[in-house]
Amino acid sequence: xSSLSARLLISVSVLMLFFFGATIVVLDTAFVSAxxxxxxxxxxxxxMQLLAAAEPNESGDLGLPIDLFEAGFNSIGSGLYAELRGxxxxxxxxxxxxxxxxxxxxxxxxxxxxxxxxxxxLDGTPLLTLSLAVQWEFQDGSLRPYVFQxxxxxxSFNQQIANFRRQLFGWFAAVAVIxxxxxxxxxxxxxxxLRQVETEIGEIEGGDRTSLSExxxxxxxxxARNMNLLIDSERARSDxxxxxxxxxxxxxKTPLSAVRALLAESQAAFGDKVNEQVDRMDEIVRxxxxxxxxxxxxxxxAPVAVEDEVKRLVEGLRKVYRDKQPDILTDVRPGVQxxxxxxxxxxxxxxxxxNACKWCEKRVQIALEPxxxxxxxxxxxxxxxxxGVPENAVDALLNRxxxxxxxxxxxGIGLAIVKDIASSYGGSVTISRSKLGGAKIVISIPPPG
Length: 449
Description:
The chain has 449 residues and is of the alpha+beta class. It has 3 domains: 157 residues, Beta-Lactamase, CATH 3.30.450; 62 residues; 146 residues, 2-Layer Sandwich (Heat Shock Protein 90). It is 51% helix and 17% strand. The chain is built from 10 helices and 12 strands. Helix 5 packs antiparallel against helix 6. The longest helix is centred in the first third of the chain and has 50 residues. The chain is rod-shaped, with a radius of gyration of 48 Å. About 1% of the residues have low confidence.
């Protein structure tokens, strides 16, 4: 993931998920624990009221009135139940709400000790039960064991817990979303200097400014300062290159003028041909002079008329290799574009065609077509029917000064120049075996940007 903002948001989201999850668990546990304690306290109150209402009846046993103080004990199916058990766990009395129900026995406990238990009815309804074993002393001084028991359905309590959990998750989700939005806005403000750096670098590339501004936070001030130093260094290097080439051009100016003057005195036909080559030399010098300036600022150039330039190159090469008379075929597909410097295109196509004509037996073919991936780029392929290039020599051939045949005229830098120019446009060069029998060199140039 390349976005710094996205990384920060994901990191904060993971931390929030962890801490909010832990908080939700703590709050849920505390709520459930507090709710259960409240239910136990309520049942304990009911139990005390049952003990207060219990009295011996006419049959000499312990009993309770039909209508109790709490309305829930008097309504069938209310979820609040009570019963009194005597010897052998015999049910002596049960509340009207428990008619028709078989309440689970809360269990035997020590005398005077309250016993809480979780149980359920036969239909699966969960219950919270409180039982208390006592010894009841009658008026004649006799003691009899009894167990008072109250039970409450937990359906409503469980529903309250479920509602609480839904609200808890809902509120925490809302808080998390609000916090993430607030953090995103805050990060947008905090990362504004980084976007400013990106914008200013783009303006430098477009030639709209010469250096980064100095109004940056302390953390980025060093980056901006070093970037400005690098830009100044590259600009100074470009100036040195330009001055060197200016000197070269100045040195060549006088000899070229002398050659033109001498040609004026020669035969017209011969003079025209040599003048054409002198013009070509002059154009090459101007192109080399433009290269350092073009590398200092990346300009947006109009598309090159590739078909016209290829025809021009082919005509020139047919004159250069008139003794060999190679059969040069051109195939320029509709829609092919090269957006860049015309001199760069001529260097690419010219070097490849010159190599192909030099090594071919008879046939040379150049094809230009739009690239499919990425869309909008250019594919240039040059084939010949010469001896080809061995696979183990492909990499070495793209380096400066490497030549496969020392007896053939040349300097061994043509393909290196092609590689450098293609790389400057983000492209690549591949060498393989051609269907014509010789070498096949393909240049892939992606669209600008």
